[in-house]
Design brief:
Elements lengths: L2 H30 L4 H32 L5 H5 L3 H14 L4 H13 L4 H10 L5 H11 L1 H24 L4 H4 L6 H6 L18 H35 L6 H4 L6 H9 L6 H13 L4 H14 L1 H7 L5 H25 L1
Helix pairs in contact: 1-11, 2-7, 2-11, 4-6, 4-8, 5-6, 6-8, 7-8, 7-14, 8-15, 8-17, 11-14, 13-15, 13-17, 14-15, 15-17
């Protein structure tokens, strides 16, 4: 079985699982709360209308990055001076959409080709937090200040990861962080989910046009199946909880609000898009801005799903270092945003 077919089947399985989860969630909510069904549907429709003007440009940019091959240029930019490559990796990770299936082959391929762990981990930590479509969706739901803060947190998280790896770069497990397994060998051969080579004018090439169209449809489908149950849950959350119900646990006056958001909320985090409406609802019921930032940042990089994807690839010590840096960076992001929000 080829790497491409393996990745394709993994993508298809993930999309089917998301569709099934969304359908089961919506049907379950309709059965559990029949009186709220009509209002919930209207809330979902209004939610999509509200976010569409900002989300659509982000989707188009994300599709262009994939179709143009810009994402595949990451490897060349990582070569060179270590500190410079960490800065570049953190910046690219904070703005580049990397599909969930491609992030493992990309990172494994970079490590297998001799790129140091420092810039790779910088990218690995920063890339799941945001991208153009996520930036636009976050701005639409939580405001521009929050969206910009989340992007800066992604960049800072990448810097933290890269510099921490430099500090322990002499360790043998930093020099050789990959496991010796067939999975790693197969992933190392597939380093991108888009075309090879960079070409900005994707519309003049038939293959790139098809990639662009496929990515637009895939991103639209992903956002729809993630946001439908999330909007429904947000509506029901607003109906069932009293205003400021969470103030005592996650409010500004609780010193444990941000650590609680990281250590309790992040492991249960499922998807970045689905988390946004729920976070908006939590904020309306008393969750502090700092706790919300910590929850979204940590959920992107510390979730069970993310950890399960990384564990088969990295050796135990680099994997534990990744988790430690993700937690510390998320706490720092939450506390920093709390000071300026």
């Amino acid at each position: 079985m080829t790497d491409a077919s393996t990745l394709g089947r993994a993508t298809l399985t993930k999309r089917r699982a998301l569709w099934a989860t969304s359908l089961i969630t919506v049907v379950g909510l309709a059965i559990a709360f029949p009186a709220q069904a009509t209002d919930t549907v209207l809330f979902i429709v209004f939610g999509f209308v509200q976010v569409a003007p900002l989300v659509i440009p982000g989707i188009l940019i994300s599709a262009w990055v994939t179709a143009s091959g810009a994402g595949g240029s990451v490897r060349r930019l990582f070569q060179g001076r270590l500190l410079t490559s960490i800065l570049i990796a953190s910046a690219i990770g904070a703005i580049t959409p990397v599909c969930g299936v491609a992030v493992l082959p990309l990172m494994t391929g970079l490590l297998a080709s001799g790129v140091p762990l420092a810039p790779v981990m910088a990218f690995w930590l920063s890339s799941p937090v945001t991208d153009p479509a996520m930036f636009a969706t976050t701005a639409a739901m939580l405001g521009w200040q929050f969206s910009i803060g989340k992007s800066l947190a992604a960049f800072g998280l990448g810097l933290l990861g890269g510099l921490a790896n430099v500090a322990v770069s002499a360790r043998s497990w930093i020099v050789s962080p990959l496991r010796d397994s067939k999975l790693v060998s197969s992933l190392a051969g597939a380093t991108s989910c888009g075309p090879s080579g960079f070409r900005a004018d994707v519309w003049s090439d038939g293959a790139r046009r098809r990639v662009f169209s496929r990515e637009v449809l895939a991103m639209c489908g992903l956002i729809v199946i993630c946001l439908v149950p999330a909007f429904a849950a947000e509506h029901l959350l607003n109906q069932l909880l009293d205003p400021q119900a969470l103030t005592a646990y996650l409010g500004d006056d609780s010193w444990w609000a941000i650590p609680l958001a990281v250590f309790v909320g992040a492991p249960a985090y499922i998807d970045g898009y689905a988390a946004l409406p729920l976070t908006r609802g939590l904020i309306e019921h008393g969750m502090s801005a700092g706790a919300a930032m910590a929850f979204l940042v940590s959920g992107s990089v510390v979730s069970i799903w993310g950890a399960m994807a990384i564990l088969p690839v990295l050796r135990p010590k680099p994997f534990l270092l990744y988790l430690l840096l993700a937690v510390l960076g998320s706490l720092a992001a939450g506390w920093s945003y709390a000071l300026v929000a």
